[in-house]
Design brief:
Low-confidence stretches: 1-10
Shape: globular
Distance between the termini: 46 Å
Number of helices: 14
Strand content: 15-25%
Largest sheet: 7 strands, mixed
Mean pLDDT: 90
């Protein structure tokens, strides 16, 4: 991999514009739902909130290989909101290219991030090896974006912060973490900066989740940087359990298989819990085989059992939902599961069908109309998941095209992201303090819809962040 430490664009310094002012700059997740990196530029410190990989269309993925837009060595602190790859996946590269300070996060986020980064690096190494072996690469040789060794180097800079505890970064700047309900360990970040309160939402969870409590109230802020993933959509108000039962029973009647692409952290565990209850309530056949073909999802489940305080269920309930699930740890057994006769439920990563073992199931199941591919989370532009939602007639996997004949279904109620009404409710808590709102982590149509709703209903000024553009927040002392 090319050495990225030369000719880096230096992090903007106060003397480059106003040395007594505070600015916000988005290095990712501006006009798109991926690559979250938001830089708070102050006279004393440069603070990066989130450090995610770009996913989705090729033009976005290629950004991961570009030189860092700012010099990592000039960033003074990183604060991580949660453990999903589009928020944490760039950390090994940041460290590899010169970052040497603390990376703050909650305890569950610390454990889950290590799992996710190790898995991501391992998959990259395996994919590069396969691409070189089978020749389906334009790069000779294909290389991993980063390695497991790079991940291990980055882990030394992880620092756990207790939730709701104020952490001082210097005399003028401190922060605290507050649960956001998206996944276990996910938090919003409240930064006290030269007397002003700046809130970074991270990803905002649902008001009513299968496993997680609602996002914690934060009350007041001068500036709010918030996600807008579903800024233009409302989740269906149907009974999620009944909807899932209908999909499963219809597919079983047709003698097909149910493939559920899952995000290994969060969605996989919620789906398992829901299926467990459907079996207990006899809404689906209790004996239908259920497979979790994601070692990382299984490992994440074990990690999450250590943090019952982050859930609305107890440890025993958490353990029981794993009891009827066959966990496949060995990639070689994937083919055996595929060949097994009879209907079955399979959960496999990744949730947007960008890689992982789910692709092997797609190769075999897409061409059979009896099967169902059930999508349960946000599908970013350019991913195979979005292509299926858009009724694409074929999908490219490992250099070959596979016709889509299987049933493609979506259950919005299983999304981990707040919908438009929930987003308005979340930002509405700050209405009395009249903050300036910056929208990030959303596609243009979603952001524009949410901007209009916030301005019309809450009378707050809203700015849509643009990648790399610095936005003035305030002058110190005013």
């Amino acid at each position: 991999m090319e050495d990225l430490t030369d000719n880096l664009l230096p992090t903007p310094k106060p003397e480059d514009f106003n040395k007594m002012a505070v600015y916000l700059q988005s290095l990712g997740a501006a006009g798109t739902v991926t690559g979250s990196k938001h830089l708070l530029i102050t006279p004393g410190l440069n603070i990066l909130v989130d450090c995610g990989l770009f996913q989705g269309v090729k033009a976005l993925r290629e950004k991961n290989w570009e030189r860092p837009p700012v010099n990592p060595g000039e960033i003074d602190a990183v604060i991580l909101t949660h453990a999903h790859l589009d928020h944490c996946g760039y950390i090994p590269l940041l460290v590899k290219n010169g970052y040497r300070k603390n990376i703050y996060m909650s305890q569950p986020t610390r454990d889950l991030t290590e799992l996710i980064l190790r898995d991501c690096a391992k998959l990259q190494e395996e994919d590069a090896e396969k691409a070189n072996r089978h020749g389906y690469t334009k790069h000779h040789p294909a290389e991993a974006l980063y390695t497991v060794k790079d991940v291990e180097t980055a882990l030394a800079y992880f620092k756990v912060s207790e939730i709701r505890t104020v952490i001082s970064l210097n005399e003028q700047i401190s922060f605290s973490l507050h649960p956001s309900g998206h996944i276990a360990g996910a938090c919003s970040v409240k930064i006290n900066c030269y007397g002003k309160k700046i809130v970074f939402s991270g990803d905002i969870g649902r008001q009513h989740s299968e496993l997680l409590p609602a996002p914690e109230a934060l009350q007041d802020a001068d500036f709010v940087v918030m996600e807008s993933t579903y800024g233009d959509r409302l989740h269906a108000q149907t009974n999620t359990g009944q909807e899932l039962a209908l999909v499963i029973n219809d597919t079983i009647f047709n003698k097909g298989n149910i493939l559920i692409p899952c995000f290994a952290v969060g969605r996989a565990q919620e789906v398992m819990h829901l299926i467990y209850h459907l079996k207990q309530q006899k809404q689906i056949p209790a004996l239908i085989p259920e497979y979790l073909d994601s070692p990382m999802a299984a490992s994440a489940g074990k990690v999450l059992q250590h943090y019952p305080e982050w859930f609305t269920i107890d440890e025993k309930e958490c353990a029981r939902m794993f009891s009827g699930v066959t966990i496949n740890h060995d990639y070689k057994n994937t083919e055996k599961i595929i060949r097994r006769s009879g209907s079955k439920i399979i959960m496999a990563a990744s949730g947007m069908l960008t890689g992982g073992r789910v692709l092997e199931y797609l190769k075999h199941y897409l061409g059979d109309a009896r099967n169902t591919i059930l999508l349960i989370g946000f599908q970013a532009e350019g991913t195979r998941g979005r292509a299926l939602l858009n009724q694409g007639h074929e999908i490219k996997i490992h250099g070959q095209y596979y016709p889509v004949k299987a049933q493609i279904r979506e259950i919005e109620g299983l999304s981990a992201h707040a919908d438009q009404t929930e987003l308005l409710g979340w930002v509405g808590q700050f209405a009395k303090s009249q903050p300036l709102v910056f929208l990030v982590h959303g596609e243009p149509c979603a952001q524009e819809s949410l901007r209009i709703k916030i301005q019309d209903e809450l009378k707050l000024k809203v700015i849509l962040m643009k990648e790399f553009q610095r936005e003035f927040l305030f002058t110190i002392g005013q």
